[in-house]
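Q: Hi! First time doing this. I have a protein sequence and I read that you can turn it into a structure. Is that right? Here it is:
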Amino acid sequence: RFILAFLSIAYLIPFASSTDSSTRSSISLPFVKRDNINSHEPNEHIIIANSNSMKMTNPNEEILIDSNPQNSAEQHDRVCIIGSGNWGSAIATLVGRNCARLPHVETQVSMWVYEEMVQLEDGTERKLTEVINEQHENVKYLPGIKLPENVVAVPDLAEACDQATLLIFVLPHQFLPRLMPTIKANCHPSCRGVSLIKGLDFCPDTKNPILISRSIEEAMGDDFQSGVLMGANVASEVALGQMCESTLASNFGPPADELTRQIFDHPPSFRVQHISDVAGAEVCGALKNVIALGAGFVDGLNLGGNTKAALLRVGLREMAKFCKMFFDGVEDNTFMESCGMADLITTCYGGRNRKCAEAFARQHLDEELNGTLKNDDGEEILVDPHHTNAAHEKVCEQRWQKISEELLSGQKLQGTLTCKEAYLVLEKKGMLEEFPLINKIHEIAFQGRPIDSIVEGVIATPMQASL
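A: Yes, that's right. Below is the predicted 3D structure, encoded as structure tokens:
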């Protein structure tokens, strides 16, 4: 008894001496089920300690872990995935399996699903959330792939993110502003986030680019931190378990950076590296979609691998230049990670932006032969390779909309939106000549310029070795 009492006192001394309970308040996480604690026999009692308390509890009861998930190894994260499209459902397959096995995470993963009716093979219509929860498959956005049973589709956003300590954002960023107040009001006070959104925000006044992760942080307030997960990750290939890599960029600090990485890392099929360069990783994830439009134009012209390789080289240079021009602390090594060069390569060969741009190019080429473009009303507009007007822009906008509806089954095309926004900021800053490829991609995509002029955007860039 004496020895046990001595050991108990010795165990408590570091907590009592390192923290002033009058100045530090504890943060209570949600109740964690017994199946998330994997190191105790059935009849043992579990001692859970932190800086303010030491509690004895019955292992068959729910356990209240009293710790901050951003700085405590005793954390038990509650994960919520906000978004359930193609990529959201694919990442849910990995996150779900990891949450079922990791001891520091609750087993259940809530996935917020925008409720809609879907038609099944037998002709009946059902709510998408009901189908996901009963069949464990997102039949609309990721058909043929089984989701883990611990991934639960929730149509109510407040319920989905209730007391969540880790938010995974994976939806078009245009929808974020109206969702953020609900998310902020319902997640746990010590919550953090990881954005899988590939795009940029832009300041309406200065037109300067703003990281979406930063927009999320500002909307959440209260010292909320958001990292990003970016990489060469075609959703269907990830869902099928084909080997790939990804990059987690975050500055949560230890041990939260590593614990967060483990929630995504699923070796050997999904290997996640950690870096601290959030800006570099995130801007690469946005701009590679713009370069992929150029790759699609190259494919539409039936040009070969040599031309596309040249376009990728120039594209990577312009991505790096854009990053360093508008954001501090961007590191050269970031462009050699999966979020940089690897993501650019896979997007320019297999992504949705490349696919839609090729379709755009082939349709445009047919009309270029006739010297006219046709709008949705069937009106013919003369093609002028040197001048454009609002009519050309309207035809291009209509064409992108129609192609995305036909080819993407409800998914959003991000490259065209980012292309327009990047063009506007470079135009305002008087820097278009420094980014000839991005400028040329915009001219073709929205000003009706000839498809074969894409080569001009490549050869206009000086041959230089450094980024």
